[in-house]
Write a structure and sequence with these properties.
Length: 167
């Protein structure tokens, strides 16, 4: 199973949503998990994970991960060639490296990272930025290119974003 997570911040709480789907080219989810939580900390430049990681870990308590499952986060796993990690990297560590974590980010990051891949989908000239731990990033790049939908953002990730913004 593939579990994709996204969190949206309102004034006084965060809404975290997870869409579960069976395979990379799935058109529809098999299950949706959602939770509202208090915001753990203010946004801190360069430490985004401090705000979002507690939200994802809280929602993960409602999900029984099994061998072979994958996790997608809206953001980065690795940030640069010096070993700095992002939200996905911290999640990978929190889970003891037992489950591959894939970061799919919409915005670029300005430090060089040899493990980061640009993914162009549909007719878009703007890439998605892909990073991963626990799985080969080049293998995942092909899978992300094949995800359902003909636009830059795959169908299920677009739906995930929309669901996280619901009050």
């Amino acid at each position: 199973m593939i579990y994709a997570f996204d969190t949206y911040y309102f004034e006084d709480y965060a809404r975290t949503v997870c869409i579960a789907f069976k395979c990379w080219n799935s058109e529809a989810e098999t299950e949706i998990f959602a939770e509202n939580t208090a915001v753990a900390s203010d946004y801190e430049s360069g430490a985004f994970y401090k705000r979002e990681l507690p939200c994802i870990l809280s929602l993960l308590k409602n999900i029984e991960l099994k061998d072979g499952d994958l996790i997608i986060v809206d953001g980065y796993v690795t940030l640069n060639n010096e070993g700095k990690i992002g939200l996905g990297g911290h999640l990978f560590e929190e889970l003891g490296g037992k489950f591959p974590v894939i970061g799919i980010a919409k915005n670029g990051f300005n430090e060089p990272d040899d493990e980061r891949r640009s993914v162009y989908r549909g007719e878009s000239k703007t890439p998605l930025f892909l990073t991963a731990s626990g799985i080969d990033v080049d293998e995942v790049k092909v899978k992300v290119e094949q995800m359902h939908g003909s636009f830059r953002i795959p169908t299920l990730l677009k739906k995930l974003d929309q669901l996280s913004r619901l009050k």
